Amino acid sequence: MSRRTIIAMTKDEWAQKYWSDLTEEPDFQRKKFSKSLTKYHNVLFPEPMTGSRVYVPCCGKTLDMIYLADMGHEVIGVEYAKNAVEAFHEDNSLTFTTEDVKDGPFVLYRTKEKNIKIYQGDVYSMTAEICGQFDAVFDRSSYGAIDPVTRTTYCGVIRSLMKAGGRILMETLYYDTSLACPPPHSVTKEEIVNDFTHFNVSTLEVYDEDKGWWADIVDEYQCTISMLQLK
Ligand SMILES: C[S@@+](CC[C@H](N)C(=O)[O-])C[C@H]1O[C@@H](n2cnc3c(N)ncnc32)[C@H](O)[C@@H]1O
For residue 145, how far is its CA from the centre of ligand 1 (angstroms)? Predict the structure, then answer.
């Protein structure tokens, strides 16, 4: 296998590649709630287990937002692709209102039937002034999706949005970067620890992920579930 160049996708490339043709499901789209979330819900929300504010960066149209809202939390997602935000509602027979966010480059989608709001815009532009602060973050393939050279900025934004003692449940993927190229970007525990300097990081679980069409390319394809708590 030859070494491949690591290419990071821009937000417009994400929108074009995965969200321009809604007749095709993106390969990262889960048809069920994420097992990491259902299994570790009580770790992410120790006390109380309902009524928390939870942030879902780069949310796409994940069903996990429905799980979190149905568990009694206030869910705030951010997603750049307008089509993804609208498909989330369409797929789940939900309706919404929209409004431009004052002083912010976002359109706010308010889901009428559930306690979910999605800011359509750039994850790096979010501030606590716009969306408030959070008890918890669910990051499935968001840190692992963004351009690695912007991770410090991403982590700074996430940190600024967290209440004292806030927790992040994070899912990342690891593979040999000499054999394959993103997306997703390969992530190691060391990278998480180095980037999220204000957090205590612990690994909850590591397991072999279904390789899918990567089967011919990589030997290892591991999913890591991490818990990060603001120090
Ligand atoms: C790998 S997907 C993960 C989606 C979701 N977390 C899930 O579990 O299905 C990454 C998502 O990030 C979005 N995205 C990429 N760059 C972004 C940015 N700068 N701001 C907001 N969303 C972005 C993409 O459109 C895509 O929906």
Answer: 7
Whether 207 is covered by a domain: the verdict is yes
Integer Cα distance of 110 and 104 in angstroms: 16
168-223 pLDDT per residue, tens: 999 999 988 877 777 889 999 999 999 999 999 999 999 988 877 777 788 888 99
The domain tally of the chain equals 1
Provide the domain limits for residue 141: 11-19+34-42+52-230
Atom of ligand 1 nearest to the CA of 19: 25
Query: For the whole model, what pTM was predicted?
Result: 0.95
DSSP structure string for 129-156: HHH--EEEEEEESSTTTS-GGGHHHHHH
- CB 155 within 8 Å of CB 114: no
Residue 154 lies in a domain: yes
Contact of 75 with 116, CB cutoff 8 Å: yes
